[in-house]
Amino acid sequence: MSTAPPSPSPASAKILRSDGVEARNRLLDAALALFAEKGFAKTSTREIALAAQINIASISYYFGDKAGLYKAVFTDPRSNPTVPPENIDNPDHPLEWALGNLMRSFVEPLKQGHLIQQCMKLHFREMLEPTGIWQEEVDGHIKPAHDALVAALCRHLAIAKPDDEIHRLAMAISGLGVMLHICTDVTIAVRPALIASHAALDVYCDRLVDYAMALTAAERQRRAVTGKPAGHKTKPVSAVKKPVHTPSLSRRSTRNPTTPT
User: Fold this and answer.
1) Most C-beta atoms within 10 A of its C-beta, which of 53, 56, 74, 240?
2) Buried b vs exposed e over 156-166: b needs ≥16 C-beta within 10 Å?
3) Where are the domains of the chain?
């Protein structure tokens, strides 16, 4: 079943703004629905222009070509906002501030309603039918944000150099937000009120920050208890090796006689 947006009625078409921002967003919305449903290769610019009710020449005017439009759809800040590293790794602000910026980048897109579901579908399709845009996303946005979070965690925990445990903690914290996107349909089925309104999403964001701070506190406590740097494996105390005297065959047979059956 196609997820392309329905054609607007004559009445609704009259109230649509005709300026560049409106036209560009209509193209982005139509392209998102079609790319998510059919993939990049099987979607034509003619289909997109028709669904958006925009002249096909507008695609080249705003985006250059279909590849440019696809990249713009994939990185649309309305559904896929990025967090500048300086909004996470900033020595002038506490860790809670950094985590709030990170979690809002996951929560705010959910306020766009159906757009985020189509965006997730597009991401899954990109992983199955890669065009290279996902790797650009990882290299250009995800890795820098991860590195910034690692730096913020090290500063908060007074650790000079990040180790595997800090990277693992950063992954776990980011995973709180990622799962919110991946499990949207599960949340709707189990407890829809959790994400049913903007106010509910704001509360969810606050709780994600609380959970992330709790994970960080747990890592601090773990380090204090072990007294070892993360990832350090304690070697067992080597026992004094005693010579093993193996009794001769005759002695073994005398001490443990076997009874034939």
Assistant:
1) 74
2) bbebeebeebb
3) 10-74, 85-226
Record: fold of 85-226: Tetracycline Repressor; domain 2 (1.10.357)
Measured in whole angstroms, how far is the alpha carbon of residue 198 from the centre of its chain?
A: 21
CA neighbor of 32 nearest in space, from 101, 102, 106, 109: 109
CB of 230 closer than 8 Å to CB of 223:
yes
pTM value? 0.76
Q: Contact 8/97 with Cβ under 8 angstroms?
A: no
For residues 210 and 261, give the distance between their C-alpha atoms in angstroms, rounded to a whole number. Answer: 71
Which pLDDT tens digits describe the chain residue by residue (261 residues)? 333 333 333 333 333 344 688 999 999 999 999 999 999 999 999 999 999 999 999 999 999 999 999 999 999 998 888 899 999 999 999 999 999 999 999 999 999 887 888 998 999 899 889 999 999 999 999 999 999 999 999 999 999 999 999 999 999 999 999 999 888 889 999 999 999 999 999 999 999 999 999 999 999 999 999 875 544 444 444 444 444 444 443 334 334 444 443
Sign of the Cα torsion 192, 198, 203, 207 reads positive
Structure-block tokens of residue 164: 């595997």
Question: Are 37 and 48 within 8 A, CB to CB?
Answer: no
CATH fold for domain 10-74: Arc Repressor Mutant, subunit A (1.10.10)
